[in-house]
Amino acid sequence: MHQEQDSRKTALVFGGSRGIGAAAVQRLLADGYAVAFTYVSSPDKAQAIVNAAEQEGLQALAIQADSADPAAIRHAVTTTTERFGLLSVVVVNAGILRLGTIDTVELDVLDQMLNVNVRGVYLSIQATVPYLVDGARVITIGSNVAIRTGFAGSSVYQTTKSAVAGMVKGIALDLAPRRITVNNVQPGPIDTDMNSDHLDMLADLSPLKRVGTAQEVAGLISYLASDASRYMTGASLTIDGGGTL
User: Fold this and answer.
1) Which of 11, 190, 199, 234 has its CA at a distance of 20 to 30 angstroms from the CA of residue 220?
2) Which SUPFAM superfamilies match (predicted)?
């Protein structure tokens, strides 16, 4: 049994303790949502986000959950809804990056990336469906490598992010009768921990000669979560400073 979105807005961000996920949590808090988010191995960073939110009178909840674990995903969803109510926005940001050319990638690395970046994304969305209000927003975080890889050693990562771009189209059709939109954000190089050792090189590759910020990606997430985007679904939006032009 579903209900329409009401004045109380709840968001759940899978993978929200650092980088783009943390920026998304902070932006959604500023937009007036009660926000729950998952983390795997950064409890101090997660608690710092909660503490900062509570000092501002905002509602945040950190939940330890590995997106490769279906039971942990379900636990995160039920914990969120028990605390804050039904979900109006879901952001699936959890993902991992392991590089290696095809002759060096071990089976366990392949399986791990598929489990988190594809299976985990699908299961995260699936777990939230019974708890989404009609008219909710589902947002995945992909990558511009789905369009242009640009370097050797990223075949598995590209495979997973291309799968996400295709996945949102099918899920968007599944959820369209409830007016739930499903869209995919595809960032290029962003100034996060993942890229901290390569910022100068990545900036030089960009037509704008800089990398993006997590806050800029969060701004696009905020738009997709808003009423202004209600006619957009099944789309992949690239935010990469022209890197795929």
Assistant:
1) 199
2) NAD(P)-binding Rossmann-fold domains (SSF51735)
